[in-house]
Amino acid sequence: MKIGKHDLGNLPLFLAPMEDVTYKSFRYMCKKYGADVMYTEFIASEALIRDIARTKKKMTIFDFDRPLAIQIYGSNIESMVEAAKVAELYQPDFIDLNFGCPMKKIAAKGAGAGLLRDIPKMVKMAEEVVKAVGLPVTAKTRLGWDHDDMPIVEVAERLQDAGIQALAIHGRTRSQLYTGEADWSLIAEVKKNQRMKIPIIGNGDITDPEKAKALLDQSGVDGLMIGRGSIGRPWIFSEVRHYLKTGELMPPPTVPFVVENVKDQLNQSVTWKDDPRRAVLEMRRHFARYFPNLPDFKDLRVTLLRADELEEVLRILDLIAEKYAGLCVDYTNVGLK
Q: What is the pTM of this model?
């Protein structure tokens, strides 16, 4: 699979862009375990062109990141063009256009998945951004707005014609948000469309290696994108890759192994933020997902999530490793909340 000059190999694995999740430390963990392509958190075009420092910090690229896409979103074509030009200055490998975020605060303003209600505008936005930058431009979208409006086959063709060089498709509509099951049948229809020449990347409900293979077999996509299934389980990339190559499942991770990886991610956050307390608060979303299905874990989980000092968190993590030293972490039936 190629995007522009970048040869990504056979069936690359993508870490999906996720707000307040795909920052430096988590990208580091996923790359460590075999994610091939990374994305920044999605970035508001208006904030970017207004030169907001916090927004620009999201575009900091590290050596381990590459290949990496900076993803931008917005409802105004001119602003998206200017934002893409600014993003290009940070030298990512791709510029990615967010046509899929379903959150009300974004979609209701005509950005993200909101553009699925105005496909001509979406296509025009893609055309103008492609013309404005020298980097490959990719996009991520959904099947459509709701069950009665799923024009993804047409959308994919038109985005390809606009110059988009790869398309990631989440197998839900905007109205579904993240509920129900992802429908990969329409992703398969896009991939099998004889008109389509660009790579198609499938996304949605990849929660374990067996599910990844089943969805790959169903759709025939060129790449797999993993989002929420990687939170608290960044090694899912190595698990998926191993299963696709060998047909065998890797042994489940032990609790001490998980604890050491949590510490690794936390240390990366501390280094990046240069503020231990802020790093701890940032990690809470991940803490909640790293230790599913452990017996008698409720009190320790609450204690971990309430801790706000680095030393306290490290002490609790050591306690978890000691208490559950002989157990493995069971990720079955975890769900994607």
A: 0.94
